[in-house]
Amino acid sequence: MTAPGVDTTTAPGGPPPAPARDPSRTARLFGLVGSLLMAGGALGSGALPVPNPLFGIRVLSLPSRNATVAIAVTYAGIGMVVLAWLWIGKMLRANGAVAPAPDRTQLARTAVLWAIPLALAPPLFSRDVYSYLAQSATLARGLDPYTLGPAEAFGVDDPLVRSIPTIWRDTGAPYGPFFLVLGRGITALTGNDIVAGVFAHRALALLGVAMIVWVLPKLARRCGLDVGLAMWLGAANPLVLFHLVSGMHNESLMVGLMLVGFEVGLRAGDRWWDPHLLAGGVLIVLASAVKLPALLALGFLGIEWARRRGGRVRDVAVATALYTGIAVLVYAAFGIGTGLGLAWLDALDAPSLIRSWLSISTDFGLLGGQVGIILGGLGDHTDAVLGLTRTAGLVLAALLAGWLMLAVLRGRLDAITGMAAGMAAVVVLSPIVHPWYLLWAVIPLAATKAMPKARRAMLIISGILAIVVPPTGADFNFRAYQLPMSIVAGLLVIALTLLVVRRSLVGRTGVDVDAWPGHVPAGRPKEDRGAPL
Fold it and tell me: What share of the chain is helix, strand, coil (3-state, %, to 5)?
């Protein structure tokens, strides 16, 4: 018996031919090289603490001595990872018309290999981890992190404060009490050792990613979507690798708990005291005690349970009362345990201090303010207009979420798709949007096949947003020349690399595409080839 794709014809007396090379292997290795370049570049371009602990260390301190080169190397790696991910996604979508796609095992191995260098390197794209450390230390010292900024709590010269961007040094924590309680545990273990604290928070972020990896296949099977495709779109997404693994944003914990709770809750029967229903609610409330928007998933889970019981008004009332009670109990436990009550709800607007160009409601507010200045001669009322447009955006998001819940209750939409679409509405219409916020919707959307056009749009958007955040996690004031120089150099490296591997990326001549394992010949019915990307 011969392996698929192997030409067994031999010339008399000649050596046996080599097996056909897997065309997806080059794309997977291309992404791995990109990840390694990012890890190496992070030594000089990453969001390093102040002072830089690498100074004075041979070899490791070299990238930090030439930040422009380090940023260029990092950008080259970013581009290579994104291109490789998109190319493999094209293979999955084309069902072998481009090149045989890697199987599920290869996809899982590839995602892990791409993540390992980023997990071992300094953080990239964000300095939020230093805020996490300072805010958790504030709570550990018996102070209120929701009313005291790190600078006021410790002083601007404290090692925990020096690495935090200036805009966030005087603001309270915008995160829920569960996350700060976990951070207080990290503070107890690491003290003022910033490097140890950073890697402890990365371990916490990886725990959230592990929950996502565990739950995505289960949600995908519920929706009838290929597990490998769901994992590639969700868990191996560059936004996950860049901002959850490398940047270690607490979205990993929020989304992980939210989706695990949703999956557990979907296993419940029709009794309100079912352990799955109760446990699922607790997990989602814990996710909301990391970041509040996760609470939306609780509404969709309750509506789905009410639909299964018949969808009557009293069923909705029972679900509402049950999950409201769980939320009150969990929040009360945190309030009493930390001694802070519900102070964290008053600090949720802290991120809105910045004006994010990704937020539609903020963009309309800024536009309206400028129109009033230029055309109306009314003076600068931008802040007032922003208040109106941001409020309108939140109201519209709430109305869309309510409409989606009604569709789930009536059976016109499955609960997973409804929850993903509701989270998308919250992200798009919220006052502040960062690229990693998109993961609130992208990850659950990756598990459903009900919205193929939206999934394709998310694929493209993920690739674009993965490259818009500078790897340093800071602005380039007074050194604006550095970023364009680095980007141009990184593009040149990518172009040269693509010239080397261009033949392998499109597959080698002579390979029998239809013979590769898992390939569906073009003549097979479309429904046998899996869900479209």
Answer: 65, 0, 35
- Rounded to whole angstroms, the Cα distance separating 506 from 212 reads 32
8 A C-beta contact, residue 246 and residue 122: no
Cβ atoms < 10 Å from Cβ of 31: 27
Calculate the CA 283 to chain-centre distance: 19
- Find, among 297, 236, 278, 269, the residue nearest to 424 by Cα: 297
Rounded alpha-carbon distances, angstroms, from residue 21 to 6, 98, 225, 503:
9, 15, 28, 12
What is the rounded radius of gyration, in angstroms, for the C-alpha atoms of the chain?
25
> For residue 7, how many C-alpha atoms fall within 13 Å in the half-sphere facing its CB?
14
Q: Is 1 a residue whose pLDDT tops 50? A: no
Q: Which residue has the tokens 């502040």?
A: 432
Contacts for 349 with CB less than 8 Å, ≥ 6 apart: 174
Measured CA to CA, the distance from residue 319 to residue 301 in angstroms comes to 9
Distance CA 117, CA 40 (A): 9
Residue type, 490: G
Measured CA to CA, the distance from residue 287 to residue 137 in angstroms comes to: 21
What is the distance between the alpha carbons of residues 364 and 74, in angstroms, rounded to a whole number?
34
Q: How far apart are CA 414 and CA 444, in angstroms?
A: 12
Tell me which amino acid residue 489 is.
A
Nearest-angstrom CA–CA distance, 249 and 437: 10
pLDDT reported for residue 375:
66
pLDDT at 12 over 90: no
d(CA 300, CA 409): 9
Rounded Cα distance, 251 and 437, in Å: 8
Question: Given this model, what pLDDT does residue 475 score?
Answer: 67
Higher pLDDT, 110 or 20: 110
What's the pLDDT at 159? 82
Span 242-251, average pLDDT: 91
Contacts of 259 (CB under 8 A, 6+ apart): 211, 212, 215, 216, 219, 297, 443, 444
Tokens of 522: 């073009």
Gap between the terminal Cα atoms of the chain? 34
pLDDT tens, residue by residue, 393-447: 888 989 999 999 999 988 888 899 999 999 988 988 888 888 888 899 889 988 8
3-state secondary structure 457-487: HHHHHHHHHCCCCCCCCCCCCCCCCHHHHHH
Question: Residues for the chain: how many in total?
Answer: 533
- Closest to 530 (Cα-Cα) out of 452, 474, 458: 452
Q: pLDDT digit string (tens) for 125-150?
A: 888 899 899 888 888 888 888 888 88
C-beta pairs of 147-156 under 8 Å, 24+ apart in sequence = 147/172, 147/343, 147/347, 148/172
The whole-angstrom separation of Cα 67 and Cα 357 is 27
Question: What pLDDT is stored for residue 510 in this prediction?
Answer: 37
